[in-house]
Design goal:
Chain lengths: 115, 111
């Protein structure tokens, strides 16, 4: 079984530029999550999708961040315009929603540096 | 609001030592608790998942316990090896399948 795929793995941009990250979850997983992990911190949930609908986006800075999950499979997370404090690792995770354990499987992450 | 705390923030031990990492959480109404490992520049690897009805889980040299009523979990690593060096994260799931993470414990095992 293939794991969660993310791209790019690394990205360096200047502040005020825009950037997009892509995530492909494990096949058949209905729930997809985006987390932000700032250096020295634990991951923080930004947005959770169930199929292509948003379940929780309470911690997503909606003035600059947006996310979509078309057709309930792949997802993109966009930042526009980026700020210095957006430098972090962005992790995507998925779960199948039927597993009573609700176990989440994580991708390798995208490391964003904003200069 | 659920908060997760991990102690210590960093730990350095000689190879072969047994060690314990601690995790505490403020809201005992959880679905499960997970321990993850994170290597530098990498994603998260799930080590152990304990359901709210369970007391402990074991995998190889790892043993995780859960005391939901007191809001505590421990990760026990037996006979530590240099390859165990990584950051260990504790996370609890309280509702809507949302994970709340601690800041992690950075473990260094010295040869």
């Amino acid at each position: 079984e293939a794991g969660v795929a993310q791209s790019p793995r690394y990205k360096i941009i200047e502040k005020r530029q825009s950037v997009a990250f892509w995530c492909n979850p494990i096949s058949g997983h209905a729930t997809l999550y985006w987390y932000q992990q700032i250096l020295g911190q634990g991951p923080k949930l930004l947005i959770q999708f169930q199929n292509n609908g948003v379940v929780d986006d309470s911690q997503l800075p909606k003035d600059r961040f947006s996310a979509e999950r078309l057709k309930g499979v792949d997802s993109t997370l966009k930042i526009q315009p980026a700020k210095l404090e957006d430098s972090a690792v962005y992790l995507c995770a998925s779960s199948n929603g039927r597993d009573v354990y609700y176990e989440q499987y994580f991708g390798p992450g995208t490391r964003l540096t904003v200069t | 609001k659920q908060e997760v705390t991990q102690i210590p923030a960093a730990l350095s031990v000689p190879e072969g030592e047994n060690l314990v990492l601690n995790c505490s959480f403020t809201d005992s109404a959880i679905y499960n608790l997970q321990w993850f490992r994170q290597d530098p520049g990498k994603g998260l690897t799930s080590l152990l998942l304990i359901q709210s009805s369970q007391r402990e889980q074991t995998s190889g040299r790892l043993n995780a316990s859960l005391d939901k009523s007191s809001g505590r979990s421990t990760l026990y690593i037996a006979a530590s090896q240099p390859g165990d060096s990584a950051t260990y994260l504790c996370a609890v799931m309280s509702g809507s399948e949302k994970l709340v993470f601690g800041k992690g414990t950075k473990l260094t095992v010295n040869p």
